[in-house]
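Before relying on records like the one below, remember that each one covers exactly one chain. Contacts with other chains, cofactors or solvent are not represented anywhere in the record.
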Amino acid sequence: TEDFGWGYKFYLKAKGCKAGHINHCLTWLNRLIYIAVDREIIRFNPLADVSYEKKPDNKLKHISRAELQRIMEQPMPEKRQELTRRIFIFSAFTGLSYVDVKRLYPSHIGTTADGRRYIRINRKKTDVESFVPLHPVAEQILSLYNTTNDEEPIFPLPNRNSLWFCIHEIGILAGVKENLSYHASRHSFGTMMLSAGVPIESISKMMGHTNIKTTQGYARVTDDKISEDMDRLMEIRKTQPNSEKTNNIK
């Protein structure tokens, strides 16, 4: 009955299951019910009106400018670690995901009439074009790898799983509290561009988003960061002597 479906859902919520797991369980339950319908054990799916849980918006994890600066200032001792560090920095200055950096070829690099170099590539995930003017840091990293032979990719990247430990070590180096992911470099590009005052339409084009609402997620991250910084400033002010606070106000 439909009551059974709602009861099952509330049971999962009472057990502390998150939205993704609840929806996963409901999906499998519905599959079983439809098998019963196909076999004419029951006439219809009584759970059809039991709604799925709405998933919360994914939090865009990024690193700060200070953390990125620490990564840039500390070369890694092993060859694979150093390659991972450079590619992470490259993505932080271009907004390209791991899969798009892996499939980046010299033909994707172009030069404008005024001599400005850029990357033009269709994202694998969305097939939307990314157009990214190259930052000097990204150009410097490019110069260390293949930029002439279009039969080979620019960067000799191994598969993503083999870079996992290197990314983790880079996160420790940067003092990142949470486990660092490669995708944090792309998110960092979005938040830094917004903080620098780059128009959101331009950022959307550079990052190859299909919808500008996706890019607006970085604006929310930036606003949250400003609020957190202000909260910390207010806490510091509370700890200062009253006389010092008043003397600084004119």
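The longest strand covers residues 117-122.
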